[in-house]
Amino acid sequence: MMKFTSLLFLTLLAISNIKSTAQIASSKQGTSKKSGIVTGADQTEKYLPYLKGKRIGLVANQSSIIGKKSSVDSLKSLGIKIVKVFGPEHGFRGNASNGAVVNNEIDAKTGIPIISLYGKNEKPTKEQLADIDLMVFDIQDVGCRYYTNINTLEYVMEACAENNKELLILDRPNPNAYVVDGPVMTDDKFKSAIGIHYTPMTHGMTIGEFAQYLNGEGYLKERCSIKIIKVANYNHDMSYVLPIHPSPNLNTQQAVMLFPSLCMFEGTAINEGRGTYMPFTILGAPALKGKYSFSYKPVSIPGMSERPNHKDSVCYGLDLRNYDISKLRKSRQINLSWLIELYNAYPDKARFFGQERASTGVSPFDLRIGTDQLRKQIIAGVSEADIRKSWEPGLQKFKAIRAKYLLYP
């Protein structure tokens, strides 16, 4: 009887394990099938016939992939004639530091000329477009005004419109599409290389939607002829884990999700993790010693950050590597409390927001935020609730405009 009971127990356990394994396999299969999110680039059946026989200019970087291969390599292997690749900030291979000038070159792997749009010219020239029949834009964005891919998009659209070239956009999900938040930039004096659009700090649009916004809101002298391959099975509230790091300092999903909140600290006395392998997940400064126990030392890291704030000095502050990012999704807001907390903890408040630039009279912090109001509110001790209340008129107006250009729920 004991042998029979043991045998029965083992049999039931085996069946349970098989069932459990099957459920796990089914769950994994369900996320990888076509029923899951499918980027525009991965839907080759929708655009390959349109590319055949044309001379293609491709705006791309390391995030431009079809399946697991580079879009350049994939399209070339499928018989598509790519005559030039245009690279944004960080370069085509994504290995240049933030803000670093990137030069034109010949890609060693493919022999295709690489034209930098973060070097001598930000906008493709008439000469550079002369031998191109169709431009294709395929770059992963993260949904922030101060992330320069949307600047590149505008310059490419402007060049295409001026030179009668169509632009095909292979759309990708915005990992921060769930949040439309922050002050709206409304004054030209705050326009810079890290912000040229009158949007909130996070705009909640994909690249395809943003292209429609640029066309519809008169950012271009002439409308650009665009064709968009939409993301399949996608809406703005969906979580999306990026398969490739979109830039050297967004090297984890945690950094991508925290970027809208932590990039605000650039232009302040706080280091936001640049100069470490944990960028945009930690915050600190030497002057906070004794106020926080967590510490780290920023150093020069080629290809990531050569001259980080507080280089070679021990910084003390917040470790957000394990912060529950679902809290951000639930609130649908940028986290403002960290900025207020570190300002209040900083001993020399006059130095927290840095100095105004002599050439413009505008501080780097204000350029990133798109207004000087937030800096003044924090200095004056305005509550977070009242700061957010001051954003609402601009946000509501922008959301009404944004709604006209959305491709996804």
Q: Characteristics of this structure?
A:
single chain; 409 residues; alpha/beta; Rossmann fold; Aspartate Aminotransferase, domain 1; 2 domains; seven-stranded mixed β-sheet; three-stranded antiparallel β-sheet; 12 helices; 12 strands; disordered N terminus
Report what the structure shows:
The structure is a single chain. The protein has 409 residues and is α/β, with parallel strands linked by helices. It has two domains: 44-229, 3-Layer(aba) Sandwich (Rossmann fold), CATH 3.40.50; 253-388, Aspartate Aminotransferase, domain 1 (Alpha-Beta Complex), CATH 3.90.1150. Helices cover 31% and strands 12% of the residues. The chain has helices spanning 2-32, 48-51, 71-77, 126-129, 149-162, 207-216, 253-262, 326-331, 337-345, 364-369, 373-379, 384-402; strands at residues 55-60, 65-66, 69-70, 81-87, 105-106, 113-116, 134-138, 166-170, 226-229, 282-285, 294-296, 315-319. Strands 5-6-4-1-7-8-9 form a seven-stranded mixed β-sheet, sandwiched between helices. A three-stranded antiparallel β-sheet has the order 10-12-11, with no helix packed on it. Helix 6 links the parallel strand 8 (166-170) and strand 9 (226-229). The longest helix has 31 residues, at 2-32. Residues 1-34 and 94-100 have low confidence and may be disordered. InterPro entries: NamZ, NamZ_C, NamZ_N. It comes from Pedobacter heparinus (strain ATCC 13125 / DSM 2366 / CIP 104194 / JCM 7457 / NBRC 12017 / NCIMB 9290 / NRRL B-14731 / HIM 762-3). Residues 1-22 form the signal peptide. Residues 56-253 form the Peptidoglycan beta-N-acetylmuramidase NamZ N-terminal domain. This is DUF1343 domain-containing protein.
